[in-house]
Amino acid sequence: MGKFTQTLKLGFKSLMVQKLRSALAALGIFIGTTTVIWLVAMGEGVSYDAQQQILQLGAKNIIVRTIEPRSSEDADERVKTYGVTRADYRRILSNVPTIETSVPIRELRREFMVKGRRMDAKLIGCTPEHLELNRLEIARGRWINERDDRENVVVLADGTARRLFPQEDPIGQKVRVESDVYRVIGQTKPREASAAVGGSLDAREYSSDAYIPLKTFQHRVGDQIMTRTGEGFNFKGEIVELTQITLSVRDIQDVDVTASIVKHLLESYHEQEDFAVVVPKELLRQAERTRTMFNVLLVVIAGISLLVGGIGIMNIMLATVTERTREIGIRRALGARRIDIIQQFLTETLVLTGSGGLLGVLCGLLCGPIFRSLRSIVATVSPDILPEIVYTLEPRIALWSVLLSLFISLGVGLIFGVYPARRAAYMSPIEALRHE
Known about the structure:
With 436 residues, the protein is α+β, with helices and mostly antiparallel strands.
């Protein structure tokens, strides 16, 4: 132990002779180590946000969505019929015993009017279970219930209520939607929007919604929607019964089997591809795989930075060996063994890489505060220069990245220090003493 301490002290003393050169050599390792931790932290932050969005959909849920099929070039349909139907909904419930709860919805973009104020909002026909499924909370008033079937009542989302009733309580007020008038019975609390999940689910904005009973939607709005195309009396329409059905199973183990049964059942009654079955659990697995691949890529990129730093260390140590040739010859003449010379130069190399690695870890652990400070500065100078995701991104330090970067930095020092150390140790003592 005493010998190791003496070698360590000698290594520090030798490095301090050339402070600037030693600092620049350690800088490459410092940058590489910090880069590993920072890149992985950013990747983990992005991955965490994506996984949270998927988890909000429910790991035990199966989402059946209506999608508009691709029209053939020869098609000239004035009214197109497609999507999930109420018959599909009843068929699924009667044939799939593993389903515990089910929530159908129909949604449509409509213009809302109150005392001269107008806004476009999403009118959603839903059932009472929709509140809990989407983690919505009531701010005032109440949610729709079974007794509201076919009644002209509406629950406004927070953003919709603020736009239509900026200075007054909306509860009990009347809202005109096209030719129908609805009475406001409730208002939901603000809820963050959900981002798009790959190509499977679109982004979901909850601030500009309005909720009415599903049967009221069917009775007042209907399934057939006509829209004007161009000038004159040219209209094009579509018949869609349900926009989405969310199914929840009793056990997460039943998700894949249930989704397969539902998809097969729908394919038996649909001649065109006008629906999609989305399984959040599968999306979560895909997100995990993507995250792993992304982290491997980031570590490889950052590892290259450490490799470059290691080459710099090797170059510095080779120069050091040349400069200290006479010192090596004197030590060998005084009885120092080759292993002693190797230990000395390896110790110096490890001190360089170890110090650079430790400083890099410290800087890496400050990733969050530094990132937030830089984001605030850039946002103050030019708010539009940063993508929207940057404002919500929070770096998440991964312990494995800290340990890995430190391990790699020491490994780089060991690998790139062996050749200079061996070159010094196997130098001829006589030739070394002659060196000027």
